[in-house]
Design goal:
It is built from seven helices and seven strands. The protein is of the alpha/beta class. A seven-stranded mixed sheet has the order 1-3-2-4-5-6-7, with helices on one face. Helix 6 links the parallel strand 6 and strand 7.
């Protein structure tokens, strides 16, 4: 796993953000965050539980976990037994069974992406994360700066890790489901978590450009 600070301004609260597959900090740098520091985890080509033990979190009054897409499973694996460190923990458009016909991504679609990976296939995947043209264009102006080889390697590793290291325990108190998600179908997310345990919003797989703020994501259920 790689990590970096997106914002570090000495705030009392910090958001730990586990991104999805194929990401890096570039698409997220211009998303406003005012009241929190923001630390990002990405690239799951190498995953060990001990990798995240030494993150310097002791100075914060509150830690908020936000995990998105494949990052939902990755966070649950990497942070097993550390749930009490977080004031809130929110899963966004992902599940604990990410490669699963009824609770995640169709396994055949995952395998096809690995076997037929190319620059056009990656472009099509990124495009499918959106339903709004302006948001898609904003993403492509700020698309991840990783090589195609590196992104494919991460995908292969994710499939292998999931096959070897499932299942994982639920560490999330809130689950946000985008009704327009074309990557993790909303019906599969609702089936996985339980409909009554989800906050259903009108959003595509990549919801961040359409949400009012990071605070919306970490708000606890009333």
């Amino acid at each position: 796993m790689q990590n970096c600070w997106l914002r570090k301004q000495g705030r009392a609260s910090c958001i730990i953000f586990f991104a999805g597959w194929g990401m890096d900090p570039t698409p997220f740098r211009d998303i406003d965050v005012r009241d929190h520091d923001l630390f990002m985890v990405f690239d799951y080509s190498r995953m060990e539980r001990g990798d995240f033990q030494d993150f310097p979190t002791g100075s914060y009054e509150d830690l908020h976990l936000v995990a998105w897409s494949m990052g939902v499973w990755a966070a649950a694996y990497a942070l097993a037994g550390q749930e009490k460190r977080f004031t809130t923990a929110t899963a966004v458009n992902g599940t604990l069974s990410p490669i699963d016909a009824t609770r995640g991504i169709e396994p055949g679609a995952f395998t096809d992406m690995v076997n037929n990976f190319s620059a056009p296939a990656l472009h099509a995947f990124y495009k499918s994360m959106f339903t709004d043209q302006a948001e898609a264009e904003r993403f492509f102006r700020n698309r991840p700066q990783r090589s195609e080889h590196n992104i494919l390697h991460e995908l292969v590793c994710l499939g292998r890790y999931y096959d070897q290291r499932k299942p994982v325990n639920n560490i999330f108190g809130r689950k946000i489901v985008g009704s327009r998600d074309r990557i993790f179908p909303a019906r599969n997310q609702l089936r996985s978590w339980g409909r009554d345990k989800c906050s259903l919003i009108r959003a595509p797989h990549f919801p961040f450009y359409g949400l009012p703020s990071w605070d919306f994501i970490i708000a606890q259920d009333s």
